[in-house]
Amino acid sequence: MANRHFPVRPNLDQLKHQAKDLLRAIRRTDPDATADFTEHHPKSIDPASCRLADAQLVLARSYGLSSWPRLVTACRMTDAIWRGDVEAVRAMVLRDPRLLDEDARGVKGNWGPPMSYAANLGQDAIIEMLRGLGASDLQFAFGRACLQGQIETARRLNVMMGNPRPLDDVLSGPAYTLNVAGTALLLELGARLYDEHGNRLAPVETVLGTDSRKPSAKHRILELYAEYGFQLPDTPTMALHRGRIDLLEEHLRRDPNLLKRTFTHEEIYPPELGCHDEVQATHGTPLAGATLLHMCADYDEIEIARWLLARGMNVDERAAVDAEGFGGHTALFSTVVSQPNFWINHHGRVPEAPFTQLLLEHGADPHVRASLRKELHPGYGIEGMREYRDVTPLMWGEQFQFKKLVNTAAMRLISERGAERA
User: Fold this and answer.
1) With contact defined as beta carbons under 8 Å apart, do 399 and 388 qualify?
2) What CA dihedral angle connects 325, 328, 334 and 337, to 10 degrees?
3) Cβ count near 3 (within 10 Å)
4) Do 378 and 403 touch, CB atoms closer than 8 A?
């Protein structure tokens, strides 16, 4: 079983260094290295007699590949596709025709066999060559091109398939990546938003629940669905999801208490649109019982937040408190632990906290306390419900179980206001 993640674009030189490091570690009987060898080497190895070839085999298998030569082939295949080296890819496939159907990375994954892998990158010449050699993953490649916004590549693949109407599940790819161009192309080509019985096909749940936070792209995709005939609910929360301040203005006119209202999880993530429960819906600080301002913080909707505050919303409006005493947090908590922080931290970018700055400038209380609990989406690999009793926004960030959702710049700003630490 693989216990390491093989990169989308593996680097052979780095992997060679990893194998040498693993060899040194096993020779000094490092516990982790010993465990790797026990799990992945077919023989019982004496650390003193371990060779580089043994470490390479163990490393390859720990990444889910069958052998070191297969790992080397995967590195060379993916590198050639990235570089657009048609002849190098052709030579590898002619030498071993099995590579035409196996995933380019040598392990099962979203990027697929060489043709589909090339479609992710818009490498049309490689796609044409592989098609000539008999590659058959046209539909998967088409979906990947749409997901990545490789529009001309997607058009070429659609022609290769005979210009069929897109499959009913293909909209989910660009919905997950919030790719507007891919969504627009699929709708142009006839992708259905309802089936022949009137059942919903539009992946609204994916648009609302993806771990990406790209407000303008989310707005446009939802508007595209509406333009092509999908009926979105007329609610304040959906108006926020759509980025429609004009609709929010109308809701405020009809309901003067809108800025004080809290919304259930089901109002934010409508089950009738296929949305999931609180664990499966990807967000940071709990949104069940939240206000529109809390929603803005988790969805990075800073322009709507400015509109709410300009209309007189209390910056310290609290979320609802449930029967067990959890909740009552302000939007400041939601700027500290939020979904927008994930990709910032994952890619090692310098964190910024304009949302926290906005709330503090409007007088947000850094000393406010609340009790929260959170169970993470299973994709993050941290199981179980965690409880945080009587914490400030700063404590919430310090104690939170998954640091990739924590904004250190937000914590610094709050700390500068004299907030209490744990």
Assistant:
1) yes
2) -30
3) 12
4) no
In which residue are the tokens 């906290």 written? Answer: 353
Q: CA 412 to CA 400: how far, in whole Å?
A: 16
For 95-128, the pLDDT digits (tens) are 999 999 999 999 999 999 999 999 999 999 999 9
Buried b (16+ CB within 10 A) or exposed e, 246-280: ebbeebbeeeeebbebbbebebbbbeebbbeebee
Residue 31 has pLDDT above 80, yes or no: yes
DSSP 321: B
Let me know how long the chain is: 422
Q: Give the confidence band of 268 by pLDDT, cuts at 50, 70, 90.
A: very high
CA gap 206, 282 in Å, rounded: 10
Radius of gyration, alpha carbons of the chain = 25
Residue 327 per-residue DSSP state: B
DSSP, residue by residue, 105-118: TSS--TT-SHHHHH
- Taking the C-alpha atoms of residue 364 and residue 135, their distance in angstroms, rounded to an integer, is 58
pLDDT for 17 = 98
Q: Show the tokens assigned to 306.
A: 């400015």
Quickly tell me which residue has 């664990």 as its tokens.
Answer: 279
- What is the Cα–Cα distance from 112 to 86, expressed in whole angstroms? 18
Distances, alpha carbon 403 to alpha carbons 284, 338, 343, 408, in Å: 11, 10, 12, 9
| CA angle, residues 340, 343, 348, in degrees to nearest 5 | 125
CB 331 within 8 Å of CB 315 = yes
pLDDT confidence band for 32 (50 / 70 / 90): very high
CA gap 353, 127 in Å, rounded: 43
- Please state whether 384 falls in left (phi above 0), alpha (psi between -120 and 50) or beta: left
Please state, for a pLDDT cut of 70, what percent of the chain lies above it: 99
Q: Which residues pair with 370 in a beta bridge?
A: 391
Q: Cβ(70)–Cβ(63) under 8 Å?
A: no
- pTM (global) more than 0.90: yes
Buried b (16+ CB within 10 A) or exposed e, 179-199: bbbbbbbbbebebbbeeeeee
DSSP H/E element including 143? helix 138-148
8 Å CB contact between 264 and 319: no
* pLDDT tens per residue across span 389-421: 999 999 999 999 999 999 999 999 999 987 666
